[in-house]
Amino acid sequence: MMAPTHFVFGVTTALGLSQLGWLEASIPVFAAAGFGSLLPDIDHPGSVVGRRLWFVSIPVAMIFGHRGITHSLIAVVAISAAIAWQTGSQQWIVALAIGYLTHLMGDWLTPSGVPFLWPNRRKFVSPIGFKTNSIAENICLVAMIAVDVYGLRG
Ligand SMILES: [Zn+2]
To answer: 70 C-alpha to center of ligand 1: Å?
Structure first.
């Protein structure tokens, strides 16, 4: 899944949750969801986040490899613990965690899959999905942007 699709998936999810009243509707919350949706790829120095935080990205990539620990249930548990630990007053942290989870879901939809059981290297792949940067992915991207624009109009 491409970075723009990850980003829009994270923001769209946060927007949907805010529409349901489960998440604060604010720019910091949506920005945190967008950042969280790019964060797992910090294990790739060529990624959007990896290029900016190269001093974290390069060591993580060398130690764990791309789609390693940052794409695992260990990361999900750590992120979920962060959510559970929050009282709701720090909505941006919750949004960041939600964005993070949408990234893993997004990668799960691609043939490369996600090593949920890392350090076991087995990759889990959704039975229904699409190739990265395929027509299907781009249709999903445009559809989510349309939903966002519609949602933001109120
Ligand atoms: Zn990824």
So the answer is: 8
Q: Is the pTM of this model over 0.85?
A: yes
153 Cα: distance to centroid of ligand 1 (angstroms): 30
The string of pLDDT tens digits covering residues 30-80 is: 999 999 999 999 999 999 999 999 999 999 999 999 999 999 989 988 887
Name the maximum alpha-carbon separation found in the chain: 45
**DSSP letter, residue 127:** S
Residue list, CB under 5 A from ion ligand 1: 40-41, 107
Please give the backbone phi and psi of residue 66, each rounded to the nearest 5 degrees, phi first. -75, 140
Cα 18 to Cα 5, 15, 59: the distances in Å are 20, 5, 36
Task: Give the start-end residues of each E strand in the chain.
Answer: none
